[in-house]
Amino acid sequence: MISVKNLSLSYGKRTLFDEVNISFVKGNCYGVIGANGAGKSTFLKILSGEIEANKGHIEITPGERLAVLKQNQFQFDENTVIDTLMMGHETLWKVMHERNEIYSKADFTEEDGMKAGELEEAFGEMGGYEAESNAGSLLSNLGVEEQYHNSLMKDIPSNLKVRVLLAQSLFGNPDILLLDEPTNGLDIETIHWLENFLADYENIVLVVSHDRHFLDAVCTHVADVDKQKIKIYTGNYTFWYESSLLMARQMSDKNKKVEDKRQQMMEFIARFSANASKSRQATSRKKALEKLVIEDIQPSNRKYPGIIFTPLREPGNQILSVIDLKARVEDRVLFDKVSFTVNKGDKIALYSRDPLAVTAFFEILAGNAEPIQGRVEWGTTITSAYLPVENAQFFTEELNLMDWLRQWVPPYVKDADEAFLRGFLGKMLFSGDDILKKTTVLSGGEKVRCMISRMMLQNPNLLILDQPTNHLDLESIQSFNESAANFNGVVLLSSHDHTFMQTVANRIIEITPKGTIDRLMAFDEYLSDPQILEQRNELYGTPEKITGF
């Protein structure tokens, strides 16, 4: 158990936490949510002891082991992968080395023998004899192949380093697990394995993540960091989001009777309790919901951006034709024999096991790159707006936000005055003096919000979205997701956000080095279809297990 008592933390005039009092108990997984800068990661660092609060203290049940997902990929460069993982259980690692040092002595004494016996007993109790085998299995489950297990950390690809550090935090069944963005750098299949692992986990987990599908799959509770406080709510992220919106609507409806509102909330909770039975955490989540007191539900204080795409005209019958497209980078083919036609109403999820392939494809569609072969034909009625995965090229000049956005005003707009531009920036939560902020000092999330303002300004009837959730907080992701789902036009998208792909796309096109797979179906259905999996393995030439979404 973790008890947080009277916790306060300030940096100068800025207060992150003020008199926070909460507890975290065994058997629950807490999704720590809050706006960018609210203090989510800082709170985890306080719990781990990395940061000391100005006031208050943390109490952890004596004897419980705490593990943290480390972020420094270079900390273990001179260690092997398997040793790096096993260092996650510090006590076991210390006992193992002390034991080995005694056995390596040339003048082994009777006292050494007694000490070795004590260490052997402790080593066995901690599962030391199976530790290396368990470590290897954990690495393999997280996509780190056996060929790398005895390599030095500095010699393995950077995308594997984050997986090793994640495995390090999971190793040895810690009593308390603190995970800050654990899905970063993971593919969808590995994220699914992690979801199942944490859903079966019986100890305390606190996780910070912007992946709503992941939060919904693993969390029994939400810890909401807002207005210098932290409040714990029962249920996963979607339950928290929808119940807070429902409560806000009820509070604004002054004419509705109290009993009617209560009945509506009870029906809402019952529906989510039924849905909980479908999750891996069914028992704990359903029990928690059954104990929920309606009065505990509060409306959210969050501000959600207004992402509204208004097409200037409806797309015609000729939208987009892709004909025999091929691209490569250095020594490998990214995709080949890519041909398809986009139809009215299509919302297409572009997918590939190689993330560079989709970005290269979108860059060709946007006219920023040339294919090795093939061509792209756009319909004359199409106005597209493109959100690239990298946006640095748009922010090279030191302009304020007003002047930056003014660059992108379409020629048919005759009166782009301050009020006009403020309207687009205001929808993305840039208000007051924010519009005088220089583009050179913007955060990653602020740059993406500027890019979305630019897209709205184009009045597009076709959206191209390459990793649209990158750098955004949950509020912006939620708004963007709903906007894309409700958009009265065509969408081409690729995202690591599983929920975004599942709720927006009605068609999946996977591009591979040997051709395409094109299906009219939802994303989950696509990933779990065994016949499609067989076809995918043939096109890539490498086997992959079905993930069973």
Q: Could you give the order of strands across the largest sheet? A: 5-6-7-3-8-9
**Poorly predicted runs of 5 or more residues:** none
Mean pLDDT: 89
How big is the Rg?
A: 26 Å
Short description:
With 549 residues, this protein is of the alpha/beta class. Helix content is 39%, strand content 21%.
Question: What characteristics describe this protein?
Answer:
3 domains, 549 residues, six-stranded mixed sheet, globular, alpha/beta, 18 strands, 39% helix
Explained architecture:
- A six-stranded mixed beta sheet has the order 5-6-7-3-8-9, with helices on both faces.
- A hairpin with a 2-residue loop joins strand 10 (320-329) and strand 11 (332-342).
- The chain is α/β, with parallel strands linked by helices.
- The chain folds into three domains: 66-174, no CATH class; 236-296, no CATH class; 320-540, Rossmann fold, CATH 3.40.50.
- The chain is built from 19 helices and 18 strands.
Topology:
Blueprint: E1 2-11, E2 14-24, E3 29-33, H1 40-48, E4 55-60, E5 66-68, H2 81-86, H3 90-103, H4 110-125, H5 128-141, H6 158-170, E6 176-180, H7 188-199, E7 204-208, H8 212-218, E8 221-226, E9 229-234, H9 237-252, H10 258-276, H11 282-290, E10 320-329, E11 332-342, E12 347-351, H12 355-365, E13 373-378, E14 384-387, H13 401-406, H14 418-427, H15 444-457, E15 462-466, H16 474-486, E16 490-494, H17 498-504, E17 507-512, E18 515-519, H18 523-527, H19 530-540
Parallel strand pairs: 3-7, 3-8, 5-6, 6-7, 12-16, 12-17, 14-15, 15-16
Antiparallel strand pairs: 1-2, 1-4, 8-9, 10-11, 10-13, 17-18
Helix pairs in contact: 3-4, 9-10, 10-11, 16-17
